[in-house]
Amino acid sequence: MKKSVRFYSGAELVGKAAIDAGCRFFGGYPITPSSEIAEYMSVEMPKVNGTYIQMEDEIGAMGSIIGASLTGAKVLTATSGPGFSLKQENIGYAYMAEVPCVICNVMRGGPSTGLPTALAQADIMQAKWGTHGDHPVIALTPAYLEEIYELTIKAFNFAEIYRMPIMLLLDEVIAHLSAAIELPKKEMLVIKDRRKPTVPPEKYFPYDTAYGDVPPMANFFEGYRYHVTGLSHDKTGFPTTDPDLVQADQERHLRKVKANINNIIDYEYYQMKDAEVIVFAYGSTARAARVAVDNARKLGIKVGMMRFRVIWPLPETEILKLCSKAKAIIIPEMNMGQLSDVIERYAADRTKILRINHVGGVPIHPTDICNVIKEAI
Amino acid sequence: MKTDHYEARFAGVGGQGVILAGKILAYGMVSFEECRAIETPTYTAQVRGGATKVDVVIDKNHIEYPRTENLDFFLCLHQKSFNIYFKEIKSDAIVVVDPNLTPSIPEKITQKLVLVDLIDIAKKQMGKTLYAAVIAVGIFAGMTKVIKESNIQKAVLDKAPKGTEIENLKAVKLGLELGKKALRSKDAIVKLTVEDAFIPPNADK
């Protein structure tokens, strides 16, 4: 009996989920290992009356999605490390102007052009601090194909709910692998749309905090005219240098994530009940870690895993609790310790942090992690 | 599939179609063999002429670690890829190479080595070298029995571009016969040339 199967690659699932979440504009510039997302969108966008545009470079691509989002479209761009760097100025603009958008970064080794076709998790910190100034950050790190679909939709929902850029961080392992998966039924999906103004155009202010920390957003070309700028601005959107207004606005931006942190943080516990040694992992590295945990359990070692589906913001309260009780925390990353540095600050002297850092472009093997688990006890 | 877990790698250079070979195999395993399969292509910055490979991890159950650890089968159509991707290979694995394209093989190779003039066979029997990848899939199925002969044929037919079904079916059958011949051989090193590549009249029986 032949089963009805459809193979999806991780890259295709980003595109498919984006379209299912309502994305109708993709502006991009191809870059390995993210090009397959652009390729998929170039084929699929016209089928849903959406727009695919390949811009002259990554900077233009980021600019194009900001413009498209201002007209009311849900928007996506996809890139990799060097392209992510180029986009950062416009990403900052999108934070400041509060323009919903999703930026998918299929991470590769760096700095500069680095390792184009090999894998890395090199942009964990760039996702947080890539653009200058203080701003809230939401970054998602799926580990499985099903999860790429789920979390891409979630990324779009976050963008719409909080009116800000959202980072979707993939690595080459899960972006390029293909497998047959079952997708949730469309009617089961929860899709959020941005809040629209209920007042007529002449009474509309684009950054009116009377409506809460996330002001309603009007679409351009529907009669609502307003000023969009990267400068600090007041509720009309025009620049201001009033210290109180600027201070209040910066605090509001950060509050969008901070006050809603429990709706944003997303993590999974595995074998944690009696765990004395804990592995912190994210993305495809977490799959190797899970196998390592299983193998170490077979040896009688009490080890568990905390896996971050959302890496920014981190679940601080939970991490602090674990730091107080764990004998050791092991953090495998395909970078030189970008998350480890942060966790070390939580841990202080309460527990030891053991790092596994591979940046050679090959995945961390379960055995590499299992060996460190054995060392930890 | 008799074993619970199987790992295969098809390697070559961009343009030879080895990535398609992996796609066909993964598709066939999932569609017709009640297995899970993950197929991961790897390429270098140079698309045509650059080393490329596809890994297929097959398992009866959920595949947690998606990359290869111990390859059971390695087929390679270029020296450049052989040098990079001849690793993680089990000592008793099957290694298939085209000796005209990969002349330099380690002298002490523990694996069962099959030297097949794949490009020559594709050119002479199919008229085009681009069928080498589908012949390779056939060799895989014929030698390993991981996928039933009828199922790999179905997978090739499903994945063949419209209008090329007959040729691709012929190519996979050629590969199956070559594979079975290699399997029957007790030699440590099996050599297969154009003379070995034909489809006997009772091939489907």
CATH topology category name of chain B: Pyruvate-ferredoxin Oxidoreductase, domain 3
| Count of separate structural domains of chain B | 1
Strand content of chain A: 15-25%
N-C termini distance of chain A: 50 Å
Contiguous helical run count of chain A: 13
What's the gyration radius of chain B in Å?
Answer: 15 Å
Question: Which structural class do you get from the secondary structure elements of chain A?
Answer: alpha/beta
Helix share, percent of chain A: 25-40%
* Highest-level CATH class of chain B: Alpha Beta
Strand order of the largest sheet of chain B: 2-3-1-4-5-6-7
Low-confidence stretches of chain B: none
Outline of chain A, from the CA principal axes?
globular
Q: Strand count, sense and closure of the main sheet of chain A? A: 7 strands, mixed
Oligomer designation: heterodimer
Q: What percent strand of chain B? A: 15-25%
Count of domains of chain A: 3
Element order of chain B: H for helix, E for strand: EHEEEHEEHHHHE
CATH architecture of the largest domain in chain A: 3-Layer(aba) Sandwich
Query: What level of helicity do the residues of chain B show?
Result: 25-40%
C-alpha geometry of chain B = globular
Output the keywords.
heterodimer; A: 377 residues; alpha/beta; Rossmann fold; 3 domains; 38% helix; B: 205 residues; Pyruvate-ferredoxin Oxidoreductase, domain 3; 6 helices; 7 strands
